[in-house]
Design goal:
alpha+beta; two-stranded antiparallel ribbon; 2 helices
Amino acid sequence: MLRLAYILFSVVLLVIGILFAVLNAEPVILHYYFGDTTIPLSLTIISAIILGALLGVIASMVLILKIKSENAQLRKTNRLVEKEIVNLRTMPIKDEH
């Protein structure tokens, strides 16, 4: 049942994408540093969305890697503390009275 829902969702997305491309097929001039080119408006919009998504993923990867590094450091500290606790529990108590 879930597989059917995925297939249905994919077909709906495909139809929406095709309709978007057909309705926005007007050519636009894209000016960039070395020149300019004429491309369809739908391609321009989709390219901008994909570029924005990629930049967002790259920006979030910096934070994710920082958090993973901190997590690894905390796990290492936790292992050392647990070893110290085990060692303290197994040490005999010396009474100096």
